[in-house]
Amino acid sequence: ESTLGAAAAQSDRYFGVAIASGRLGDSVYTNIANREFNSVTAENEMKIDATQPQRGQFNFTAGDRVYNWAVQNGKQVRGHTLAWHSQQPGWMQSLNGGELRQAMIDHINGVMSHYRGKIVEWDVVNEAFADGGSGARRDSNLQRSGNDWIEVAFRTARAADPAAKLCYNDYNVENWNAAKTQAMYAMVRDFKQRGVPIDCVGFQSHFNEGNPYNSNFRTTLESFAALGVEVSVTELDIQGASPTTFANVTNDCLAVASCVGVTVWGVRDSDSWRAQHTPLLFNNDGSKKPAYDAVLNAL
Ligand code: XIL
């Protein structure tokens, strides 16, 4: 196959990309995105601040722009993200306790009903665990609303769109030996045991000096898959874009039957939130980097 998406589709997987609505007028960008990828995640447009800027007033203009571009070009869409400590609108940042709990439920219902039946996988909860060696939950207004906020989010999401696969998504959870990985594993195992509706786990996979790729990533993917969830690489970028590391990540997903796909977090280096790391598959002029060939060869 000659594109990433078509190559991934040979094993019923997707190869996706984060799309920024503000770049959809750039034909170099859209030509690559349309040619190479068969799944789309909105980089920012479906987040809480974008979709509910004022309490009770939903705005899907930018989210729909990304969604419509994707679907008109034959791509599936990952939803990102419904409950998160970051990119909360100001009104939500100032809420706490039971009021925040209800606002989270209302937000999940509002966004998921707009996209009901249209989103293959939703990142229901994003980045709920702390960095470092504690294995604790991250402190946030959501966490302070009660430790059960994550399962409340998942139960709400299941009722709001029963067809969507419901994912937990986090970063620095690729290394099997990390406390954060083990904490996430314990939560997913507990949810599966107690029947909390969770279908998938997303590994953001922002690899850099602080979170280097480790070959035990495959063990991580296998271990989560063994709990009965799908796994995916949801926001891949690699500082310096080592072709070997990109190929290793691709091969790790391919090696795990329940790994459904890989999403890279942008098209060209200049589109990346970490542009100075040159972490993506395409140069600023749209040409393919060595990492691109490494991924295509691996698929
Ligand atoms: C990033 C976007 O790429 C930036 O444009 C934005 O300014 C901040 O968020 N984890 C996530 C993504 O789940 O939503 C983040 O995206 C990167 C880290």
Summary?
The active site is at 235 (nucleophile). This protein is an alpha/beta fold and 299 residues long.
Tell me the distance between the termini: 9 Å
Shape: globular
Number of strands: 9
- Helix percent reads 25-40%
Structural class: alpha/beta
How many whole angstroms does the radius of gyration measure?
18 Å
Bound molecules: (3S,4R)-3-hydroxy-2-oxopiperidin-4-yl beta-D-xylopyranoside
Q: Average pLDDT value?
A: 98
Strand content: 15-25%
Please write out the topology:
Blueprint lengths: L3 H6 L4 E6 L7 H10 L2 E4 L5 H4 L9 H12 L3 E9 L5 H4 L3 H18 L6 E6 L14 H4 L4 H12 L4 E6 L8 H16 L5 E4 L2 E2 L9 H9 L4 E9 L4 H12 L4 E6 L25 H9 L1
Helix pairs in contact: 6-8, 11-12
Question: Which features characterize this protein?
Answer:
alpha/beta; binds (3S,4R)-3-hydroxy-2-oxopiperidin-4-yl beta-D-xylopyranoside; globular; eight-stranded parallel beta barrel; EC 3.2.1.8; 299 residues; hydrolase; endo-1,4-beta-xylanase activity; single chain
3D structure, described in words:
It catalyses: Endohydrolysis of (1->4)-beta-D-xylosidic linkages in xylans. GO terms for molecular function: endo-1,4-beta-xylanase activity. Residues 1-298 form the GH10 domain. This is Beta-xylanase. Belongs to the glycosyl hydrolase 10 (cellulase F) family. This protein is an alpha/beta fold and 299 residues long. Helices cover 39% and strands 17% of the residues. It is built from 12 helices and 9 strands. It has helices spanning 4-9, 27-36, 48-51, 61-72, 90-93, 97-114, 141-144, 149-160, 179-194, 217-225, 243-254, 290-298, and strands at 14-19, 39-42, 76-84, 121-126, 165-170, 200-203, 206-207, 230-238, 259-264. An 8-stranded parallel β-barrel has the order 1-2-3-4-5-6-8-9, surrounded by 5 helices. Helix 6 runs parallel beside helix 8 and helix 11 runs parallel beside helix 12. The N and C termini lie close together (9 Å). The mean pLDDT is 98. The structure holds (3S,4R)-3-hydroxy-2-oxopiperidin-4-yl beta-D-xylopyranoside (XIL).
